[in-house]
């Protein structure tokens, strides 16, 4: 018993020392062993060890010495673009998500296809993505100001934050940086990595868990659908042929279904789009959760959130904007850390957003 107490005291001391020197965040085997021990002692949160585990080597002000103007440049260009075209906020946020869920946040989404490789950009879920030109413009400016320093992956993460934040005229979440750019981009990896809008709850959760995200992140990040538009083609089945008998999905509010049918009449025009959060699709707010709780969201993957009690309870709470924002700050940072290539983990600083400097030797 006495020995056990001594061992615990030693471990506690070890955790405090390593924690205060930041060694627990340094990566590698020592970190893993110590974190496990610290977790066993139940002191993980108190020391801050593990709290930033999802940051996986990213840090605030990574470019403080090498390119202090990076955040200003990204914000100025992004804000001027969004000021001219408010639909860009949705597009740039979605680019960040589609980048991170496929091969991690490594800007692999931006790479162009080559004669013998079809890149992520060309996979069906990515074909409707636009807004890449904003990232290209920022990358060119940064290459002039701080050549070979700022990764495209960091630019994508910063741009998403700034595009959404324009509405508030202040950054609404923090973006730790230090990502490197990947060199591989495969269209074949996109569909298996991104959840389908027809997915049920267990499938969605499994997909998020595959990306080290949980129920809270699933519910919170789905709130990004407060911004933007979709196509009638993606909701036609719910409206006109839900079970193959010409019926409408009963989980969709029936009056709303009738409204949607007037926006998306048969024959479905593949070019017709509609707001995902009616009346406020240009505003980052918590209306998505209000619509969700009234059975007025467009995708099965949205309404599926109500089929799990824990997710449904959170979806109720997140109708409050302050609560949504607090959750979103955490979950978007976890998303922004998926599979990141940080110092010592490979990757490169790409010279232009679309081209890997090593591309010719890789494909
Ligand atoms: C939970 C799983 C998700 C599914 C099944 C899903 C699916 C979709 C689909 C099908 C569209 C419409 C595409 C189109 O009509 O062209 C869409 C749009 C969008 N998604 Fe998601 N998404 C999910 C999660 C996310 C996440 C995590 C984010 C960001 C953090 C996000 C951000 C957006 C945005 C902003 C749009 C609107 C884009 C625009 O207006 O151009 N989505 N999503």
UniProtKB/TrEMBL annotation:
Q: What is its main location?
A: secreted
Catalysis: reaction(s): 2 a phenolic donor + H2O2 = 2 a phenolic radical donor + 2 H2O
Q: Where in the cell is it found?
A: Secreted
Q: Which cofactor does it need?
A: Ca(2+); heme b
List keywords of the entry alphabetically. Calcium, Disulfide bond, Glycoprotein, Heme, Hydrogen peroxide, Iron, Metal-binding, Oxidoreductase, Peroxidase, Secreted, Signal
The protein in question is named Peroxidase
Cofactor binding description: Binds 2 calcium ions per subunit. Binds 1 heme b (iron(II)-protoporphyrin IX) group per subunit.
Where is each Plant heme peroxidase family profile domain found? 57-357
| EC number(s) from the headed UniProt entry | 1.11.1.7
Q: Which family is it part of?
A: Belongs to the peroxidase family. Classical plant (class III) peroxidase subfamily. Belongs to the peroxidase family. Ascorbate peroxidase subfamily.
Output the Gene3D superfamilies linked to this UniProt entry.
1.10.520.10, Peroxidase, domain 2 (1.10.420.10)
Q: Which gene encodes it?
A: LOC113716163
* Signal peptide start and end residues: 1-26
What is the organism lineage in this UniProt record? Eukaryota, Viridiplantae, Streptophyta, Embryophyta, Tracheophyta
What organism does this protein naturally occur in? Coffea arabica
Its job: Removal of H(2)O(2), oxidation of toxic reductants, biosynthesis and degradation of lignin, suberization, auxin catabolism, response to environmental stresses such as wounding, pathogen attack and oxidative stress.
The UniProt entry, under PANTHER family, shows:
PEROXIDASE 25-RELATED (PTHR31235)
